[in-house]
Amino acid sequence: MVSGISASVDTTTSAPSAAERLRITEIFHSIQGEADAIGWRTVFVRLTGCPLRCVWCDTEYSFYGGGWRDIDDILAEVATYGAGHVCVTGGEPLAQKRCLVLLRRLCDAGYEVSLETSGALDVAAVDPRVRKVMDLKAPDSRECQRNLWSNLDHLLPHDQVKIVIASRADYEWARNVVAEHQIGQRCMVLFSPVHGAIQPRELAEWIIEDKLPVRFQLQLHKLLWNDAQPRERPEHILEGASEANTSSSTACPFAWMIRCAHPSGAILRRFSVPSAPSGLRRMTG
Prior knowledge:
By secondary structure, the protein is an alpha/beta fold. The protein folds into 2 domains: 5-239, Aldolase class I (TIM Barrel, Alpha-Beta Barrel); 240-285, no CATH class. The protein contains 5 helices and 13 strands. The chain has helices at 71-80, 99-108, 168-181, 200-210, 220-225, and strands at residues 5-7, 21-31, 41-47, 67-70, 85-89, 112-117, 131-135, 160-165, 188-193, 215-216, 243-244, 260-261, 268-269. Strands 1, 2, 3, 4, 5, 6, 7, 8, 9 and 10 form a 10-stranded mixed beta sheet that branches. Strand 5, helix 2 (99-108) and strand 6 form a beta-alpha-beta unit. The longest helix is centred in the middle third of the chain and has 14 residues, at 168-181. It starts with a strand and ends in a 16-residue tail after the last strand.
């Protein structure tokens, strides 16, 4: 995700009626790091709360807290960023029933809208204009039993199923599920490695070896900012930042392709790796 501008939630104003509000953890303007909208400038609306506890979750801060926001107020803030794409995420956004109202209102306003959802809650009532990016939880998540398999019947061709993979056992489970349910014939399937659990190259080679009808993906925002949360990323991080030399390429994989944010969020680093993968031009400037 890009220039991490996180919006604080003002809880000092009088609360709107329950029919018009949602509990929001943050609203921020960034670059979409996943799924078919990867690379697009996007406004993210992160709803508070999630009934799942996946062991590799990277947004645990959204489980609690947040503040009530009027849906009109949310749309007004989204409009200030001038982006055509909006991603409603969490937590698990569908844990708040009025998320469906927000999704519809965003579509009515003309945005390309995506919904990141765990696959554990019913997606049948989601506006068909929304691109659902739905997880199926593999065994190592420890939430595999929460998969709501009936959701597969509500997938449309523009939707995506994402399976996050932490081990060879997860991969074999995912491979079998995709084949058994013929998910690739319904919509795009994404296989993504758990950051730090398995090597991305390893997962890519398994997919190639088995000739799977799936799309391999890395989380672009983690390549750009390591594991920094949106609130930790400086404004306009890709513009006008000072540069510093470094002797290590371990902090950011594929750094020969991109400029990487220092973990402190203060500087950009750029360097070349002596053995970039064959067929790819090394970029150092």
